Amino acid sequence: MPAPDPFAIPALRVAGDERVAFDVGECTGELRPTRFFTAIMSEGARDVEGLGYSAVDTPLDAFSEAVGGYLAERGVSMRGGVVLTTSGTSTSLAILARALASAGEIVAVEHPTWHVALAAFASARLRVLGIPVDDEGLRVDLLEAALRKHRVRFIYAQPAFQNPTGVSLSAARRAELLALARAFDTPIVEDDFAAELAYEEMPPPLRTEEGGDLVVYLKSFSKLLTPSLRLAAMVAPHAYAAALRSAQHGLDPFPSTLAQSVVARCLSAPELLVDAARLGVGFSPGPAFCLDGAGQRGARLAFGATPPLMIERGVRHLAQAIRERLREPGRTEPTFRAC
After folding, report:
1. Which parts of the chain fold into alpha helices (H)?
2. pTM of the entire predicted model
């Protein structure tokens, strides 16, 4: 019997109350940099190049450069890989399901796993083999038994903060999984949707130099920026490039150029903003308040709602982020003006 569709079940409401949305995997408006994002969207809409079609083989140059830099900083190996732009991870999975497997063939997944991934595989008429997850992530020992018994076309996994369990794959099992995939010549599809949500150090990707020829890496910008952009990147071994592009031409031929332009700006401008956020400090970047891309050397620090001791801590951390940026080769000391 198929599982019920969670989006089709009406929630009972008490008069005057709003629905409690524990089933929605996104941030509320209060947690998004709305003013900054609005300014970036306005810039993107003024970009003539960003308002036309973008074919599978011709993403915007600015987007390709920004994403390449971001993924390299994340630790993702780009060597021997081809980068595809898609309209979200769900679309990436639909493309992969048709490029790497045929109807009736088997894909191995973590169990439980993301319900949209299951829907994508079902739509491609693939057979799904569930491998249990425990406190260290995917049970690689049980996966090995499954690979010996079945011809598995690929393994779908979320090594960082797995959905729905929230568990991250342990270091030992990461090594075991890569070794197992190599031994059975079975590609891994790594869905890296939430690594940036780590409170401390981000879990490393599977697609490193060691696993570059085995791992298809998926990065969604929905959790990082906003779900409405519907944009993602896929880094795959060159061996799969032709099959992936062929499948994408029929499923997702024109990823949004406007979304690419916006993501490129978001990934290329707020370096200090990201550094400060990692240290637990938030501020409003200057460009959010200015026209035509001005304000790069400015920032707004609001202090009325922050206790004095937290202000002192915030200033120390912000100064630390600035000092670390100034240590990078080629950087010059910025000029700040109080107002």
Report:
1. 34-45, 61-74, 89-99, 115-123, 140-149, 171-183, 241-251, 257-268, 271-278, 308-326
2. 0.76
